[in-house]
What does this fold into?
Amino acid sequence: MVGVLADKVLVLNRSWAAVNVASVRRALTLVYADLARIVNPQDYSTYDFESWIEASEAAKSGKRIKSANFELCVPEIIVLTGYNGLYSQEVRFSRRNIFERDGNTCQFCHRKFDRSELTIDHLIPRSRGGKTTWENVALACVRCNTRKGSRTPEEAGMRLLKKPVKPQWATRIGLKIGRRCKRSWEQFIEEAYWEVELKE
It folds into this structure.
């Protein structure tokens, strides 16, 4: 039961634009409080809490949540009844997000590596006043990092795969969906949004 309640539900705003991803527990709370409706991915009909219980009784497949009095199909999509904006959340500058941005790929030799085999390189070295910012760091394998040393990529004659920039993942729904995307979500989210490789 706890595992199912932690599963992910796509949240749409009142205009049916994807704005967030919530847990099943949070989604059902919003529906129960009459702040959202559950969307049936087959025909896009919407349900309040009571009518979803009835629809769940008729449904023959899918994950279920059982209580003493009723059974519920686990929702995959909800639509908010009041909120019509887009969430915009700052992308945190963290080691994990640098690896996500660069796709676990050395930005000099363009090869993919295990995370343990990659380092975060300062393009303008810290010893020369380089800051730790989105625009001044890039993933480098140990070999390329050693070859570059305390020089800039230009001085070392090394070309970057792409110019490092601050990711814009937050502009759609506040987080990178990655492999958690469900088939029923696809039409609400642009494919390019969850691809690992970010384009400039």
Remarks:
- Strands lie at 8-12, 18-23, 36-39, 46-47, 64-66, 71-73, 77-80, 118-122, 137-141.
